[in-house]
User: Which sequence fits this backbone?
């Protein structure tokens, strides 16, 4: 009986302290939080360093727009004075939407405790799943009122998953230790930051195309209103918005009504969705997919129309996984693509030829669009390549996505120019 009472007291105490940590800080509404990102050259995916643990340590993680939570490998090199494993059925577990109890038979360490919560984590590239322990520890992130980064603000009891190390074995950039999930799940990175600091439920991504020293950014908070100008340019002035749909898995979807290539129409997406069993016709926005992916019927039409806009003699042998490749020097300008959003005369997401092609060999460029087969997870997946060097605003409070109608390059800017990330 005494042991049961002891457990209840500890559980209630942890829950009380957790609730205090989520409500005792309201940040200046003019502030935003900024996380620098970098592109991995070998995979085309983007990653960031999270500042976690005590003492604070840089932890390299993949940026996963649709991930449900932050998950890290705790089996190797995880050392922290402030790590805690919430008891099963505690308030933290309910917040993470997990009701599974987990007990590790080995000696206690981060990721291995008795009577904790089990949480499933996913490698977003391979889709492999693994069960781990719900943990909480310090997370720190820079605040900004402009292009200069300010002090570090901390979340003392940030919730995340200690995932098994085998999830890191395939598909991810080298030296990555986990995943930063930005999806619309209860303990995703944006939702925890918004809850803890009282931020507007909104974040903006600006991914750098360049994989050397250039750093893009994820901006948490109301960037369009709080950061109206960068280096004298009103970079958010031409945003167009389209409704945002959240799937049951917490993924971000928009509705594309049709596609135009140099004003030539491709098969409307709504016709495909009406004949494809088990799909809603939604378009997924993804950072864990390097290139655009199209359902097979749409893909065939897309490639055919794209190829018709270019000299046939410029085509060369395909380079897998792409099926349409060209002599780069034979093409002065690639066709531009327009995604007509939501309705026939809805806002248009313009994708330049540069955003749709990649150099696969010296002198050879390919259309960076992949055949997703007959039953992909979405008819269209807008990949990381199409998001690079563009501002994309995820306004969760108003259920909408904002995107630039003209690229940053039209202002002479790149995503790497927005913030001074020296020594970060």
Assistant:
């Amino acid at each position: 009986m005494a042991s049961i009472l002891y457990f209840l007291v500890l559980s209630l105490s942890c829950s009380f302290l957790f609730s205090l940590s989520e409500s005792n800080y309201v940040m200046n509404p003019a502030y935003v939080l900024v996380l620098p990102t970098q592109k991995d050259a070998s995979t085309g995916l983007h990653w960031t360093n999270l500042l976690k643990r005590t003492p604070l340590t840089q932890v390299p993680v993949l940026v996963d727009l649709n991930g449900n939570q932050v998950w890290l490998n705790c089996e190797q090199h995880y050392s922290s004075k402030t790590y805690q494993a919430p008891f099963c059925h505690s308030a933290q577990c309910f917040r993470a939407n997990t009701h599974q109890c987990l007990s590790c038979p080995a000696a206690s360490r981060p990721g291995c405790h008795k009577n904790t919560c089990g949480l499933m984590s996913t490698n977003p590239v391979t889709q492999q799943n693994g069960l781990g322990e719900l943990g909480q520890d310090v997370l720190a992130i820079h605040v900004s009122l402009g292009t200069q980064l300010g002090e570090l603000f901390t979340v003392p009891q940030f919730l995340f998953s200690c995932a098994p190390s085998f999830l890191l074995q395939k598909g991810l950039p080298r030296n990555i230790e986990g995943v930063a999930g930005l999806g619309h799940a209860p303990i995703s990175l944006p939702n925890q930051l918004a809850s803890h600091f009282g931020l507007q439920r909104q974040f903006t991504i600006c991914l750098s195309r360049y994989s050397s020293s250039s750093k893009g950014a994820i901006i948490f908070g109301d960037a369009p209103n709080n950061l109206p100008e960068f280096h004298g340019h009103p970079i958010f002035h031409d945003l167009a918005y389209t409704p945002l749909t959240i799937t049951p898995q917490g993924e971000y979807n928009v509705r594309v009504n049709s596609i135009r290539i140099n004003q030539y129409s491709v098969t409307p997406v709504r016709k495909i969705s009406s004949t494809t069993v088990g799909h809603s016709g939604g378009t997924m926005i993804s950072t864990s997919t390097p290139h655009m992916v199209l359902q097979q019927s749409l893909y065939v039409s897309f490639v055919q129309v794209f190829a018709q806009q270019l000299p046939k003699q410029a085509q060369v042998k395909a380079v897998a996984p792409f099926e349409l490749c060209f002599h780069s020097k034979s093409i002065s300008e690639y066709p531009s693509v327009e995604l007509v959003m939501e309705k026939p005369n809805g806002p248009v997401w313009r994708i330049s030829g540069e955003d749709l092609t990649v150099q696969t060999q010296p002198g050879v460029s390919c259309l960076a669009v992949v055949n997703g087969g007959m039953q992909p997870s979405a008819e269209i997946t807008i990949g990381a390549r199409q998001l690079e060097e563009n501002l994309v605003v995820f306004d969760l409070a108003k259920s909408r996505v904002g995107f630039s109608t003209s690229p940053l390059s039209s202002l002479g800017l790149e995503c790497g120019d927005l913030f001074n990330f020296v020594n970060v």
About this structure: Residues 168 and 223 are 33 Å apart (CA to CA).
